[in-house]
Design a protein that fits this description.
Strands 1, 10, 11, 12, 13, 14, 15, 16 and 17 form a nine-stranded mixed sheet that branches. An eight-stranded parallel sheet has the order 4-3-2-9-8-7-6-5. It has about 400 residues and is an alpha/beta fold. The protein is about 30% helix and about 20% strand. Strand 2, helix 4 and strand 3 form a beta-alpha-beta unit. The longest helix has 24 residues.
């Protein structure tokens, strides 16, 4: 249906009311505002099943990272397929997930401020399955004091360096010493170890990625072996990513994966190469696009779209179905699609789907996902934490 042929303005005025009522009958992508985030439900569901099947086959658990989607709807779908919980990088995301009924929430960084400590302890009081990590003995002492004050036992893992200098205690004796400190603390419960090899996740080439992941996590697994020999409890050994999911699941010792991007995929991951295809990482499909509209075309071999810097447009984004099109920034609310002479043109008002470059950042600037099968909208999932800084 073209814009020119649409005379029923009431239809467009009624879109939001219908979404609130969850009445998606005869609601299509062409009815949606732009820019907006659109999830292809068929591809998304296949991605979830692929990872769930892999985890069952290899005997490893999934505790998927929510930073990619920030959606309890998605977390619950993963749990229904066998996930044991979720991982979060902020205490706010932990709160949002737990308040939505998600159990097994793991905070993957130290809650190292008075505000974060208080919120972590309050969350553990409400949801005993919540856990956090420490990489410093001082942090263990702070958490012990705060947990003792509230009369609870806080599930705690030791974060071990695995290639990223942003966090993690040194492997071996240092990490083991922290683990012993946690285990001997009256109000902390040692549950195991974490080591995230973020540098391996985007290493190009599956064999090179495997080598890097093995190098980065060797100290973690050596520490785990030392802990077990010392009689310390090791319930979990957590790490891994979308890029290394079929590498880390074959590594003896890792009990769970923190992979998150696989639910949607982005242009960065697609180009790191897979085990079976060195050029394209095709294990998971591209389920998420940013829907935009062509709003001007007054110059040859280019058109303007209504997605710009605010929509997180990047030159490394890709146009769905049109790999020959170049994506360019043009300002806060404007983007440019450019092409060589002789390439098929776009029409004014035409809708264009873009594959985003970075899922985490893109998700962070939108309020909801419009879920579609083909062109029909079948659901809307809110993106949590868009109410203000305290909710991020």
């Amino acid at each position: 249906m073209s814009l020119a042929a649409t005379n029923d303005t009431k239809r467009f005025e009624d879109v939001e009311q219908r979404i609130v009522r969850r009445d998606f009958r005869s609601l299509y992508k062409e009815d949606l505002p732009t820019p907006s985030m659109v999830v292809d439900l068929d591809i998304f569901e296949k991605n979830l099943r692929t990872m769930a099947d892999h985890c069952r086959a290899t005997g490893i658990n999934l505790r998927g990272h929510v930073k990619v989607h920030k959606s309890p709807d998605i977390a619950k779908r993963q749990i229904a397929l066998g996930s044991i919980g979720v991982t979060c990088a902020t205490i706010a995301e932990c709160e949002l997930m737990a308040q939505s009924g998600i159990k097994g929430v793991l905070l993957t960084r130290q809650p190292a401020s008075k505000n974060n400590i208080a919120r972590a302890i309050a969350l553990a009081k409400k949801e005993p399955t919540f856990a956090t990590v420490v990489d410093d003995p001082q942090m263990a002492e702070w958490l012990q004091d705060a947990a003792a004050e509230r009369g609870l036992k806080l599930r705690t893992a030791v974060d071990v360096y695995a290639g990223l200098t942003r966090h993690g205690s040194a492997a071996g004796e240092e990490a083991l010493s922290i683990a012993k400190k946690v285990d001997s603390s009256k109000n902390l419960q040692l549950i195991g170890f974490m080591g995230y090899s973020g540098t391996a996740s985007h290493t190009h080439g599956w064999e090179e990625r495997k080598k890097k992941s093995y190098e980065d996590t060797s100290g973690l697994l050596e520490t785990v072996a030392m802990a077990k020999k010392a009689g310390l409890p090791v319930e979990i050994v957590t790490g891994g990513s979308t890029g290394t999911y079929n590498i880390d699941s074959g590594r003896n010792g890792l009990t769970e994966l923190q992979a998150g991007s696989f639910v949607f995929m982005d242009t960065l991951y697609r180009h790191i190469g897979g085990k079976s295809d060195a050029s394209v990482y095709s294990d998971f499909g591209s389920a998420l696009t940013v829907l935009t509209t062509v709003i001007s075309k007054r110059h040859p071999n280019q058109c303007t779209i209504d997605a710009g810097n605010k929509a997180l447009l990047k030159p490394t984004d890709e146009v769905k179905g049109r790999p020959e099109i170049k994506v360019l920034n043009q300002g806060a609310e404007y983007g440019i699609l450019a092409w060589d002479a002789g390439v098929r043109d776009y029409k004014l008002g035409e809708r264009v789907d873009l594959y985003p470059t970075n899922l985490d950042m893109s998700t962070n600037v939108y309020d909801r996902y419009y879920v579609v099968r083909g062109e029909q909208v079948v659901d809307v999932w809110p993106i949590m934490g868009r109410a203000g800084a305290a909710q991020r």
